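thread: overnight batch results

M.L. [08:02]
morning all. the overnight job finished for the chain we discussed friday. pasting input first so we're all looking at the same thing
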Amino acid sequence: MVRQDVERLLWTIEHGRRLHAPESQHVDLKEEANRRLNNGRVLPGHSENEEAAVYLAPEVCCMANTPLGGALVLGVEDGTLLPIGTELDADWLAERVFVLCGVRVAVERRYLLGHRVLILWVPESPTPVLGPDGKLRWRVQDSCLAVDLQTWWRARWHADEDPVSDVEPRHGDGGESGGLGVGEPTSE
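M.L. [08:03]
and the structure it wrote out:
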């Protein structure tokens, strides 16, 4: 599902189409930090940019906490969907993100309208991943939002649960064979 969302987004950009909501719960567009001046001019890129890694680390943590994980497309302007590219070394970036937040990402190099972009494929984490600021966040629609640990575990527990595990036979008073009940409260 995540790969399909990314491919659909890249296809729409390549074909000059505009999506109503290009970003989703599983796909986020990012520019490389510290490459744009206040006047909008994009500066040349470098193979290493510590500010970019520090900027991306919380986003990676957020995606890792989201069911199914997600992908960050680096080198595309969020508002206009114009590719501006990145020169970051993919291996360097993957290692820096891991050091900063403990999440291993796969980094794919692609070209989009002649600009080199990187796709950071973020796997879903089986345990909560705190961001560098010590906060737990996950994606809701197209934003990273804070979540408490109990809510995170409850969502994961219910996501893996058998949908009928709470269903038990219910028997009526007169020996009738009752239907199915799902954790219904009883009055005594």
